[in-house]
Amino acid sequence: MYKTLRVLIGFAAICLTHAAQAQKIANTPYSRYGLGEYNYNLGNVRNAGMAGVGISAGNSYQANTANPALLYYNSITVFDMGIAGEVKSIKNESQKQIDSNANLYNLTLAVPVSKRWSAAVGLRPYTTVNYEIRSTSALESNPRAIIESRYTGEGGLSEIFFGHGVKVADGLTVGGSASYVFGTITKEAASLVQDDSLANIGQTRIVYSERTRYDSFLFRAGANYRKQLRDKLYLSTGVVYALSTDFEAERKASYERRTLSDNVVDENILPDSSTTNINVPSSLRAGITVDNGTNLTLGADLYMQQWSKFSGFDGRSDLADSYRVAVGGEFTPDANSIDNFFKRITYRTGVYYGNSPYKINGEQITDKGVTAGFTMPLGRSTIYDLYQLNAAIGYGNRGTTDNGLIAENYFQFSVGFTVNSRWFIKRRIE
To answer: Which of 8, 114, 133, 260 sits at a 20 to 30 Å CA gap from 176?
Structure first.
């Protein structure tokens, strides 16, 4: 077991090195705004199968990172790793394209410190940026001339977190986490004038390039209360509050002249560098869950954040207040079944709806979708070790083609592997 776990952690460390440099998603033009596409799921693949529900849905065999107060329920060591991918259809009123990508989803190691205290450390994406937008327009002074514009961006921010969950009274647990958020976002804007009436024009394009490095510390506080209402009926309520934080941003920008094949002709033209603080507003997450204490859990989560208070590099906000409502559940037919493997599988589903932070041309972009997932036991479980395979899929829609906007239809999938192991066992000699 320990050899297997060491191999997994070693592989995870290699993935961490790559993931810390950039987090990628399929092409999404809306990641052009703010710090990019925000990661709504603070949990793992289990939570993804329930549309992100997890603020009050504790689990003894999955890392409870959605709410640090739930880490208390991880009474044995849990190692969790997941990857995620996306296939997306992007269209406007006249064009359509298909994009796809995959990347690391999460890395988590949760360890019980005492009977009343558990801790966890891990890595997950905070925001992601990946877009390419092309447009053409006529030059008013010359109808034969056409301006071709291209806007691209990539990168994002990663979050390394360290969380704790402590039991303070019967049914009441509290927790907190400290995160170091860091990353680099690169954006380019290029223009090219083509005019068939002039010779040798349009052989090079002018590109404005900026590379911005961000880093900051982010703190979250959480609480959860669980109470038995009657036999086989429990109620849990949870809340997570993330404090407002200022990101230190260092931007380096310049102009370049490139050929049509993107070979640089002249670089570092009019170089400029600047630094500032970018404020990310506080956020609130709340959840309520009912379960029967064994194999059925139903829950709902609410997320709210005043992105209108976000201050970008120029001190202004191009975002709007957002919210997200999710409802989900999980069910295991019979975890102790011997003759039917499918009864030992945990099945999940969920739905979500909300307003994204993006408000363009006076219209705020909505996001909605459905999810499903499962956890499958692997091998023979013992009192010392338990292996699990987790998977989730989701289909969603965001945006509209009205008013010159872009609609996205996306299919998401994620796969993870969880190892539960009892590390600290007092040996007895009879």
So the answer is: 8
Q: Give the DSSP H/E element, type plus range, for residue 141.
A: none
Selection from 238, 68, 76, 243 nearest residue 164 by Cα: 68
Mind listing the pLDDT tens digit for each residue in 117-130?
A: 999 999 999 999 99
**199 pLDDT more than 80:** no
Name the residue among 100, 94, 212, 98 with its Cα closest to residue 153.
212
- In this prediction, residues 214-220 reach a mean pLDDT of 97
Query: Quick one: which of 21, 36, 120, 104 has its CA closest to 70?
Result: 120
- Residue 77: band (very low, low, confident or very high) from pLDDT cuts 50, 70, 90: very high
Q: How confident is the model at residue 424 (pLDDT cuts 50, 70, 90)?
A: low
CA-based R_g, the chain, Å:
24
Q: What is the DSSP string of 278-323?
A: EEE--EEEEEEEEE-SSSEEEEEEEEEE-GGG---TTS---B--EE
Contact between 120 and 111 (Cβ < 8 Å): yes
User: How, if at all, do strands 264-280 and 245-259 pair?
Assistant: antiparallel
List domains and CATH numbers for the chain: 2-384+395-421 (2.40.160)
**pTM of the full structure:** 0.88
On the 0-12 / 13-18 / 19+ scale of CB atoms within 10 A, 115 is exposed
Q: How far apart are CA 283 and CA 310, in angstroms?
A: 12
